[in-house]
Amino acid sequence: MSTEPTHPPSVDALARSLSKDVPLPHALLVDCARRAIQSHPTDAVNTAHQYAHELHRSLLVDVVNATGVLLHTNLGRAPLRASETSRANNVEFNMSTGERGSRHDAVSQLISTLTGAEAAIVVNNNAAAVMLVLAALAHGRDVAVSRGESVEIGGNFRIPDVMEQSG
Fold first, then answer.
1. Which among 19, 42, 58 is the end of a domain?
2. Residue 152 lies in a domain
3. Checking CA distances to 118, which of 55, 67, 73, 108 falls within 20 to 30 Å?
4. Under a CB-based contact definition with an 8 Å cutoff, are residues 94 and 101 in contact?
């Protein structure tokens, strides 16, 4: 019986072994392997599998909309096109609890992992992006705006008004 300490597997070897069980992009499997080796070096293999399976379960999955609500807002509303997006999915539905979830969970986790950021949020319009960036980076400070940006961007939003709301 050997008393030598065992070493965790290499990140790449562990990520490759994960790819046999969990259908995720290699970069995400590498992240799962790294986190497992750092947090549980003596049980990195099992921990990495747990992380990868949890990540895979958190992603959007096809569901059958049997709620009786024709355009269910938590299940992706209406399909955008008949190909890949033709099925309902769990866009705002937590599959573990069976309750309403957050549409930000899957994308923020993916963006954070891919960029190495602590957190991420995705918005779908310029006004929201401007407001978030200014609130985070220029709160209480002056910001220059060109005259060309003083236009209305829809829904009575004007860039200077959005900027003022951000603080």
1. 58
2. yes
3. 73
4. yes
